[in-house]
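Re: the 185-residue chain
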Amino acid sequence: MTSHDGISAIRQEFKGEPKDLVPVLQRVQEQDGYLRPDAIRSISRWLKISENEIFGVATFYAQFRFHPPGKHNIKVCMGTACHVVGARNFVEVLKADLNLSPGETTRDGKFSLERVACLGCCALAPVVVVNDEVHGRMNRVKFTELLETLKHTGEPPESEPDDGQQEHADRRPEASDVRRERSER
């Protein structure tokens, strides 16, 4: 960081206009992992937007955090495909096992939890991402094993590659499959 507020380099990327707010917040979070109070103060003075307005914008978007993420940042996809096949189970496991709710970090700083609207991996539903590594076709047992591995070794196991060779019985039909079957009748 080149200054006491840590955003000097970021300032050089933008014109300093109010319309820059969301991209500036994204860059600060990318740099620091979350939106620090001193960075919000500095952005407020720079863009001439009140801190309250910045908090209003930042709390509107689920992507922004106000606390440092844990060593293991867990994102649970709650998009339609994942929700329908039980993604809420993973949130329940984390609440029961670590007393961790979405948007929080454990006291020891090891785990944080984010609920995300969609990760764009619908064919792998339900999906959990740990430290940017996608774990698809998750179930409660596999998720609990993943969590235990993280607690004891500190590293997630390698996610299984999807080579497209999974059995048909294991695959949920997609809408296009259903339409195709209907038209073949």
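The two ends are 65 Å apart (CA to CA).
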